[in-house]
Specification:
The protein is an all-alpha fold and 248 residues long. The protein has 7 helices and 2 strands; from the N terminus they run αββαααααα.
Amino acid sequence: MASASKSSHAWLITLILAVLGLIGAQAVLYMSYLYTPVQITPGTLWVGEPDGGSPINLYESYRIFFIHLPSAYATALCCLLCLVGGVLWLLTKQDKWEALIVSASEVGLVTGAMVLLTGTLWADYAWGSGRIGSGWNWEPRLTTMLILWLAFAALLVLRQSMDTPRQRSVMTAVYGILLGPLYPLVSKAIEIGQTSHPRSFSDLLSAPEIATTKHIASVGVTLAFMALVALRFQTNRIGQQIQQERAA
């Protein structure tokens, strides 16, 4: 009975997160197109061309950041969950922490892809030729983000190559811990020879409509992704229970 009660509470929390995330995501889509200014005042947020040329004004292309930034925040949270799950599994050997690592990696693979996709699409417009991929310039921020995305994929693939459940669990926990510091590396990469990615959004956020939308997006979209982590956690736990019953 206690186990069933815990399970029902977990599903309830997942449902609440999903509802809040969907409401937040819908609010962000509405506000980003109908509430924020049609055009940024010239000079509000500038970035330098990768070749050191004249500055580029973002104008309306900034709207993509209402998805780009929360996706980056969600990716950071997924890294943190992998780290926490890895440490707790090594301390307790409980299956639920392995399920947390796997769930966070699965969602991290999605959020990381969204960060790369939205960032690349914006770069194609901002300083590329307009063709897909023309804005990708292998700067440290871009390259480290790609490495992080590949690391999520590698965890999910490599754990399946382990011969025994024990080896799979150990590998998942250790790899999850190693994933943890990767996002801080991505964040700091902007200080290593970065020329195109904006260093600060403070000028952009000086417009109250943009600042409000950014804050709501940071919470709403991130909640939607965390609801996805919770949903995958529940399904992964069910998968673990099925495997244990088959092995019994």
